[in-house]
Structure to design on (1015 residues):
């Protein structure tokens, strides 16, 4: 049965009855009967080192002096951060008073800013009296917003959120059939959160259990009596402007319900003018953040850039109609019932023009606190270890499954002094779960020994790190276009989310089992102190082995929860730096999940984790995960790992997972790692094929002998990625606006069929065609005949011309010619047989072909060889019967013969002028300054041999009836390092794009894996 002491506005659900009873009992235990306590008549001022003097009303003092709030003195705001920053041990009690102080400052400033505006423009922006009407409710919210925290604040929340209660005997079907729960029924925390979030839903930000504790405590009659029995300064004549839903001050139910909404970050029920008050409690600039950020700067000694004075000068409220709400703020309208005649405005919290830069500094300062405190590696190690011990406590004690009991557990549980004797059992009294319990020493020791390592600051060390920033197997993300959805697709982030949703005990056991296999392989190596020597060692590993996996959205900045005045359509602070997305960049580059273990066994657990994740089943699919540990663990442990890994390689332990074998030392230097990362980043722009991961780059390099790997890396680090859709618009505009074409009609026809690369990037040129009044057609268009007849110029555009043969073949078909016009001796050389069956390239209407013959043509290519233009021109005049004056060929980037990278006879580089090299000559120059002539000769022979073998298996040689030697280093041995976003040209080194079998120097047949596979 629902307790009578619970106010009616709390969610009504029979499953919550025992939870509510537990909250009522807790309040009874920690709040003295107000009729027996002293009366609080006067307000006070409290001096705070961060806020200054803080005014506390008499009724607030009555609340603060209860055991309920005094217990907050013994609850650390930042969990175990004091183990790293000794002075950073302030409590929730200090923070609660500081939050009230910041609320005083903000409300005062909002009133002053409104008065200043009135004096300036002779009118008020909004009805500022709304602050007076709701001041009591918002102050109650600020006072109670953290009262539901348990030991070590957010640290215990992680463990409490998994509590199961004993709801397994009561099903959803029983609930639907209106069956009452069993007398001993207690809901799981997930059930409690689900029920409360139906009442207090906050978009994607759901209420957590500690907020629910706070709201439930506020929803007890004893708390209502405590507050309202201490209101001597409130006179009846001051109650004229109270909210519509509050008939008089004694309507405790209505007032506290409003406060509960504010704690949940919601406006008061059906009151749009209170949105700014909800934002003051939960937004990107709430009073909670204003207090704890300045407090953490003060007590940690960390300096952060935060100009609170400027923010206070620019903070303001803004009346907006429902239609004027920015998209992120529309969530507030879900809690407001509007009628057609309703003209009420939403009043929003925001920043006046000129204050956005101070707010940006505020956001970056908050990110600094994440980096230096909340996600500090030692803090995370201690807290993850503590979470594991708390979970162990839950498993051993039935009462700990009841969520409200955690409100009783003191932080001193980790420092309980234990008295025991080997000859007899010593019985102690300890306070736990709010009652004095007689507990034998043995159980007492077991309970408190869970936490003794933390009390003695014996914190596990990092043994393994995994995430986007050190993944070798993640697909690369183009950093210019980072968004949250793309980050969620990353393999390593999917692994995080999977592990967060699973019971990690099985993963721990798998790691220990793998560690035992490794130990068995080299058990005779007694000199390795990091190998377990006894059963006690294995127990130590099991006890201290901890996985700490961050939630992908843990680092979250909320600029879009505020209104920014006079910044145009942007309606966010992203006009200077991407504050809203800065946490994504931080996630990609800074945050790792960690595995911790006792410092002695770090090398062993590193290697065990590496093997476990090598082939890991994620959502019923086996995937490969490899993570670079260079930055994740200490140099001392890295040297130990190398020693043990060399032993394992010697006994063949890595034969089944060669990717885990050590890289050549030359590829592990800082310069080499940077070059590999640059290759991955550079090729991440490719759309025509899967861009390689860091691991795939390394695997490509491993195919070369060790003395050639670094040379090969220097070579591929010079690959130039060109984007036709970015290169072409300017040249198209230039030709279109030239004197000869300016006033003429222009049609663009596809140079190839729908599978051709030119067709793929035509869609990106649509805007250019429209702007320049160029008609884009295909040969299926019904208006084709009329358009060709109407227009004077035909544009044909492609990314690469090579020798001009492909373009010539398509032109022969477009103009209605067959291969019979080509001399027999040249037919096999010039006629590409693979296009014979592609009907898309031939139009049956001869009359259109004849009309085309009389038109003028513009051929535009991104790249081409220095001989290509003359060759194509020759073919067009000789076989296509085009007059020289009727066509023009433009090549944006012309490739010179002396741009060939491996050609040692050409020591000069192609230049546009005396200072500027062509992009291809620059590639050659950069490569030749990094690699000696001897190395160039060696690697060129390797590329030539591989290219010659794998190109045999491709159609390019068969179709052109040319020897493979002519294509060993790319089409016509052009030796290019150019790829297009939408295609891989065959003139690029064959071994870079061509896959196939080859025979190595030992006579073994192997599969050559290219860096970028051409489709």
């Amino acid at each position: 049965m629902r307790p009578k002491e619970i106010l009616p506005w709390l969610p009504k659900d029979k499953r919550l009855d025992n939870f509510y009873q537990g909250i009522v009992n807790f309040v009874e235990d920690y709040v003295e009967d107000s009729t027996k306590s002293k009366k609080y008549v006067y307000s006070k001022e409290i001096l705070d080192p961060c806020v200054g003097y803080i005014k506390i009303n008499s009724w607030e003092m009555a609340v603060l002096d209860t055991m309920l709030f005094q217990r907050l003195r013994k609850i650390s705001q930042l969990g175990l951060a004091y183990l790293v920053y000794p002075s950073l041990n302030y409590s929730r009690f200090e923070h609660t008073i500081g939050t009230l102080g910041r609320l005083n400052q903000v409300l005062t400033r909002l009133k002053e800013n409104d008065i200043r505006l009135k004096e300036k423009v002779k009118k008020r922006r909004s009805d500022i009296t709304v602050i007076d009407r709701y001041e009591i409710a918002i102050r109650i919210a600020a006072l109670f917003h953290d009262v539901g925290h348990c030991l070590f604040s957010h640290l215990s929340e992680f463990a409490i959120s998994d509590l199961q209660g004993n709801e397994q005997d009561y099903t959803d079907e029983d609930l639907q059939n209106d069956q009452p729960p069993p007398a001993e029924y207690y809901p799981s925390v997930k059930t409690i959160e689900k029920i409360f979030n139906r009442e207090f839903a906050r978009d994607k930000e759901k209420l957590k259990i500690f907020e629910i504790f706070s709201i439930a405590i506020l929803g007890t009659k004893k708390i209502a009596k405590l507050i309202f029995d201490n209101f001597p300064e409130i006179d009846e004549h001051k109650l004229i402007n109270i909210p519509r839903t509050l008939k008089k001050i004694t309507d405790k139910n209505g007032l506290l319900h409003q406060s509960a909404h504010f704690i949940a970050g919601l406006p008061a029920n059906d009151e749009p003018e209170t949105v700014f008050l909800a934002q003051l409690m939960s937004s990107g600039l709430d009073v909670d953040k204003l207090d704890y950020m300045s407090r953490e700067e003060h007590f940690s000694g960390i300096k952060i850039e935060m100009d609170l004075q400027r923010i206070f000068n620019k903070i303001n409220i803004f009346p907006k109609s429902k239609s004027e709400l920015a998209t992120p703020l529309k969530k507030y309208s879900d809690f407001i019932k509007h009628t057609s005649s309703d003209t009420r405005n939403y009043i929003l919290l925001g920043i006046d023009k000129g204050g956005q830069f101070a707010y940006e500094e505020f956001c970056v300062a908050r990110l600094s606190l994440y980096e230096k405190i909340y996600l500090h590696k030692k803090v995370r190690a201690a807290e993850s270890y503590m979470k594991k011990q708390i979970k162990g406590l839950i498993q051993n004690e039935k009462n700990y499954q009841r969520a409200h009991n955690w409100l009783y557990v003191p932080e001193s549980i980790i420092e309980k002094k234990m008295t025991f004797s080997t000859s007899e059992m010593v019985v102690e009294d300890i306070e736990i779960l709010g009652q004095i319990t007689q507990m034998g020493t043995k159980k007492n020791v077991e309970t408190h020994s869970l936490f003794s390592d933390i009390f003695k600051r014996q914190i596990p060390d990092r043994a393994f790190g995994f995430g986007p920033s050190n993944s070798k197997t993640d697909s690369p993300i183009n950093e210019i276009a980072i968004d949250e959805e793309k980050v969620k697709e990353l393999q390593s982030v999917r692994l995080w989310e999977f592990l967060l949703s699973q019971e990690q005990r099985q993963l721990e056991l798998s790691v220990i089992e793998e560690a035992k296999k490794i130990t068995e392989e080299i058990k005779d190596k007694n000199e390795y102190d990091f190998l377990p020597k006894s059963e006690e060692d294995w127990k130590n590993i099991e006890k201290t082995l901890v996985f700490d996996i961050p939630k992908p959205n843990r680092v979250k900045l909320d600029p879009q929860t505020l209104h920014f005045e006079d910044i145009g359509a942007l309606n966010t602070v992203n006009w200077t730096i991407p504050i809203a997305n800065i946490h994504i960049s931080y996630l990609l580059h800074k945050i790792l999940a960690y595995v911790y273990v006792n410092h002695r066994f770090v090398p062993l657990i590193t290697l065990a984790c590496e093997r476990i994740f090598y082939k890991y089943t994620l959502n019923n699919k086996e995937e490969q995960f490899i993570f670079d540990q260079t930055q994740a663990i200490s140099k001392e442990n890295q040297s130990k790992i190398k020693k043990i890994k060399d032993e394992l390689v010697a006994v063949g332990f890595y034969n089944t997972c060669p990717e885990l074998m050590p890289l050549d030392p030359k590829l592990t230097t800082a310069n080499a790692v940077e070059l590999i990362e640059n290759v991955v980043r550079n090729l991440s722009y490719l759309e025509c094929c899967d861009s390689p991961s860091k691991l795939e780059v390394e695997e490509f390099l491993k195919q070369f002998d060790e003395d050639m790997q670094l040379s090969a890396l220097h070579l591929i680090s010079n690959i130039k990625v060109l984007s036709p859709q970015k290169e072409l618009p300017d040249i198209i505009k230039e030709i279109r606006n030239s004197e000869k074409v300016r006033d003429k009609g222009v049609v663009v026809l596809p140079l190839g069929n729908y599978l051709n690369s030119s067709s793929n990037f035509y869609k990106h040129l649509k805007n250019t065609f429209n702007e320049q009044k160029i008609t884009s057609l295909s040969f299926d268009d019904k208006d084709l005949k009329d358009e060709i007849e109407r227009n004077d110029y035909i544009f044909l555009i492609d990314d690469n011309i090579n020798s001009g043969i492909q373009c010539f073949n398509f032109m022969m078909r477009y103009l209605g010619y067959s291969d019979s016009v080509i001399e027999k001796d040249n037919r096999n050389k010039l006629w590409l047989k693979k296009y014979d069956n592609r009907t898309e390239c031939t139009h049956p209407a001869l009359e259109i072909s004849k009309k085309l013959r009389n038109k003028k043509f513009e051929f535009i290519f991104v790249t081409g060889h220095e001989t290509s233009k003359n060759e194509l021109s020759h073919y067009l005049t000789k076989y296509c019967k085009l007059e020289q004056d009727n066509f023009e060929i433009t090549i944006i980037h012309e490739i010179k013969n002396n741009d060939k990278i491996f050609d040692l006879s050409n020591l000069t580089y192609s230049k546009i002028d005396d200072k500027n090299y062509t992009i291809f000559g620059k590639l050659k120059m950069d490569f030749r300054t990094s690699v000696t002539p001897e190395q160039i000769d060696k690697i060129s022979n390797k590329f030539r041999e591989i290219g010659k073998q794998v190109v045999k298996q491709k159609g390019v040689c068969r179709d052109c009836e040319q020897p493979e030697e002519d294509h060993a280093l790319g089409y016509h041995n052009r030796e290019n390092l150019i790829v297009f976003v939408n295609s891989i040209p065959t003139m690029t080194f064959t071994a870079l794009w061509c896959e196939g079998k080859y025979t190595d120097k030992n006579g073994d047949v192997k599969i050559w894996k290219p860096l970028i596979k051409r489709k």
Q: What stands out?
A: The first strand starts at residue 44 and ends at 48.
